[in-house]
Each structure stands twice: as structure tokens, then as C-alpha cells.
Write a structure and sequence with these properties.
Helices cover 45% and strands 13% of the residues. The longest helix is centred in the first third of the chain and has 26 residues. It has nine helices and seven strands. The model has no long low-confidence stretch (mean pLDDT 85). A seven-stranded parallel β-sheet has the order 3-4-2-5-6-1-7, with helices on both faces. The N and C termini lie far apart (58 Å).
Length: 253
Amino acid sequence: DHRDLHSFPTRRSSDLDIAALMSGTHPAQQRLAFEELLAHGLSLRRQRIALREHGAFALPIARKAVDALRGTLPFALTGAQQRVLAEVEADLEAPRPMLRLVQGDVGSGKTVVAALAAMQAVSAGRQVALMAPTELLAEQHLQNFQRWFEPHGVRVAWLAGKVTGKARRETLAAIADGSAQVIVGTHALMQGGVAFGALGLVIVDEQHRFGVHQRLALRDKGLAGERVPHQLVMTATPIPRTLAMTADRKSVV
């Protein structure tokens, strides 16, 4: 159609329904909102399909080991924690990669859910990497995991920027040969010299403080053919990008 565009009728700004615009009920606004939501939904669906083209190592739950860890915790799980744990356990048992967000306020029990998920992975012969954005937060996780896991014979390793020299070389060797079963650290986990022997589960705390490429760099360290590690994201303050990343896999504790 080569008609002059100026021949089409136009509306003056004074003709617009200002009240409808202010209330968000104007047809033009609704159309734009619909198109944006449709595009966002289709984009998420493409991401989900692309993710599921990869497989993952199915991590069958060793109920005895997980229950033994639960039995030594100094507290009982709440109803919400048990519900979220059941959802995570079911995801880990599937041969497709989990990508789940666990949201909850500080002190709500996200870490203990992550620890029990880690025990499921370790019992299935896979390694677990837990990455936190600061050394202080990572050290808090390290202390908890050492207290919970080491009585059960699970070796917990620590890797951060300040781990240097002989201690770093020994830690890297233990990560590479699989003798370090749970590895807690900071951005150092993503560095080029870090090679995992059998990474099966990646846990990221406060994911929004890492870039997408950083998170994927850690995930790809567990790449084995067409299989990638399961991913569990924990946060107290989810942002739209975090929520979009997980789409239909969100749990609240």
C-alpha cells in the first residue's frame, strides 16, 4: 500500500481519554501490555525448551542418608520446609536439569533445604558446589555445612580468593578427583583453574548479585556430554530477572 501515510486519520492529543490513560484502561495501553506479556511468555517458553534439551544426572534419593542428616539437625523442619524439600527431591530424581528458586526471608530455612538437597546429590555420587557473593556469607554457609555434614563423613571444602599457595593446590586437587564432595566458595569457584570431578548440583545464594554469564560458567563446569548439573537458587529478595530465570519452578519457605 503506497498511499500517503499522511492521508490516514489522526487524533489530536486533546481527543485522548486522559482518565482512561491514567487508569490504565485505554485500549492502546492494554494492547501494548498484552503484546509485552505475550513476547515475555514466548521468550520464557523458548528458554525452558532450550534448557530441557539438556539432560541431567538423575539423583535418586538415599532416604537413609537424608533422614540421618535430618535427625542430627538441632531443630525440626517446618511444614513449609518439608513441602519445599519434597519438591526439590522430586526435581533431583528426574533426568532433566532442575532450575528452582527457593525464596524466603532471612532465617526461614533456605539453607537447611539446600543442605538436604546436597546430601541427596552426594549420596548419589555427585559433587555439590555452593556459591555465595561475599566471603562473609560463604563462610557462614561453610560453618553450617561443616557442622551438619562432617559427622556423616561428607568432606566439605572451601575455596575463595584468599585461599592461596599449598592450601589452594590441595583444594583444587580434591575438587578435581571428587574427594571434596561439597565445595563452598565465592566467585573463585568459576575461575579457570577449577575443575570438578563429578558436579551434579549447583547452589547459588543471592543469584541476582551474580551475572548470568557467571552463573552459567559455574554450571558449565559440570557439563558432561549433553548433561548439565541441577541448579538451586536461594534468595530473600527476588528481582524480575531471578523470577524470570526460574519461570515455573519457584518455592517459598
